[in-house]
């Protein structure tokens, strides 16, 4: 008995190698037959004949002269027929009796504007029994104006924030009955002079830079406006004295401690700004430093001279009275609050000590009025450093500059609301 492996099956007897060789033989025979038939057909076909390309279909447009189907005829112009219109006048008489007293016919006219002019005119006509006899009575026309010359709330229905489109830098509305009821917006541009900055870097190099601590003080004044008032204030990019953007900002802050003379283009532009409603607050940025004070005085003389205004003849520096409206435009002050010159008072206030000749102490501020409007206020009290350093570790004075910042708010609001200012003239056009 033959042994059978457990892995054998019915297909184990097939010779796979023999089948593979047979299949390969048939495949090569078929391949040879196909190749032979292909070559024979190629020979029989011969050389390909060259076919001519068919021309594309073209369309020819023929323009023919128009043919008249009807002869040209001239027709007569029709005449308008005249018609007679008969009007029939009918007299209508009202039925009424003129007995007793009739009602008076009243007509009132009231006009209002920013300055609150009030006009009342009334006319009364009485019909008597026998014949009517008109009697006219007119009341006196009265006008009332805000004695503080401010923009009031006659534009109460005006959405002041909707006008903040970037075209104007400031718009405010003030209630004449409540000086603290003021609302609007203010984009305070940082105005700089290339001449002043160059001189400050040349004569007094400062590691942090003069512009940085001036900007710090200005930013604190803007924060005080947002804190104490309903004016939405912020700081816009800075621009120079010679820029056209100068005429859009109602309040310009200039602070320096070095002698300088403005360029002709800067002086001319600043002079036109002051004479057209602008306001400049100039402050000596070094405590009681006389050269800086004299340089600022010379700046005003130069800029106003470009507009034909001569010092003493056309304008002069006047001492700001303690009851001036700038001290009551928002917060109340008895006079100019002390600035960073408080350190000067502590140093030379007692014992008979005298300051050096280049230092001078003023207990008051000075103004430059032009045509009855305060165009500038000059300070030697160094509010710049009070706003920037007072209350920090770099200051020798204790406490916080709360009153000094409140006075900064007064300066800005006074510049916005005084008659003839840039903002006041702008609000006049919105009546």
Overview of this protein structure:
This protein is of the alpha/beta class and 431 residues long. Helix content is 29%, strand content 14%. The strands form three sheets. The chain has a five-stranded mixed sheet, with helices on one face. A three-stranded mixed sheet has the order 3-4-5.
DSSP strand count: 10
- Total helical elements: 9
**Cross-sheet strand order for the largest sheet:** 6-7-10-9-8
Distance between the termini: 130 Å
Overall shape: it is flat
Strand coverage percent = 5-15%
What's the number of structural domains? 2
**Average pLDDT metric:** 75
CATH superfamily of the largest domain: Domain of unknown function DUF4159
> Secondary-structure element order, as H and E?
HEEEEHHEEHEHEHEEHHH
- Radius of gyration from the alpha-carbon trace, in angstroms: 48 Å
Q: What share of residues is helical?
A: 25-40%
Q: Which class do the helix and strand fractions yield?
A: alpha/beta
At CATH's second level, what is the architecture of the largest domain? 3-Layer(aba) Sandwich
Note poorly predicted spans. Answer: 94-132, 136-155
Query: Biggest β-sheet: count, sense, barrel?
Result: 5 strands, mixed
Produce a short descriptive summary.
It is built from nine helices and ten strands.
Question: What are the main properties of this structure?
Answer:
431 residues; Rossmann fold; five-stranded mixed beta sheet; three-stranded mixed beta sheet; flat
